[in-house]
Design brief:
It holds the Pfam family LDLRAD1_C. By secondary structure, the chain is mainly beta. It is built from one helix and five strands. The strands form two sheets. A three-stranded antiparallel sheet has the order 1-3-2, with no helix packed on it. The longest helix is centred in the C-terminal third of the chain and has 4 residues.
């Protein structure tokens, strides 16, 4: 997730921390076409468009994985849909985490219902 900071003082003087870094903080990169950048639920945060619907909580609030901000397709074949308790995931977890004797879903379905990898 990246944070948006003020562009500067209006006289061309850049504000501190304005360089955009993948996975870091900085302004929305103006040099990139708009289709490459996606806003998060928090208007001051952004991600690269290819991070939407990838199963990972890139925005920190799951807005890149869940509606109303993003309309993602259902979990893919390598994923299990459940209410995740792992911050990294939103409503799908990788099936490799199923039946590993560790709870990843609030309803324990990853241990008792998921068919596994």
């Amino acid at each position: 997730m990246n944070k948006i900071f003020p562009q500067g003082d209006g006289d061309g003087n850049a504000a501190a921390g304005t360089k955009a870094l993948p996975g870091g903080e900085g302004d929305v990169p103006q040099s990139l076409p708009s289709f490459l950048v996606a806003r998060c639920g928090d208007p001051s945060s952004w991600i690269y468009s290819d991070q939407k619907c990838d199963g990972i909580n890139n925005c920190g609030d799951c807005s890149d994985e869940l509606s109303p901000v993003t309309a993602c397709p259902p979990c893919g074949p390598g994923w299990w849909r459940c209410p995740s308790i792992v911050f990294k995931y939103c409503d799908c977890i990788p099936r490799v985490l199923c039946r590993d004797h560790t709870q990843h879903c609030s309803d324990w379905s990853d241990e008792y219902s998921c068919p596994g990898p």
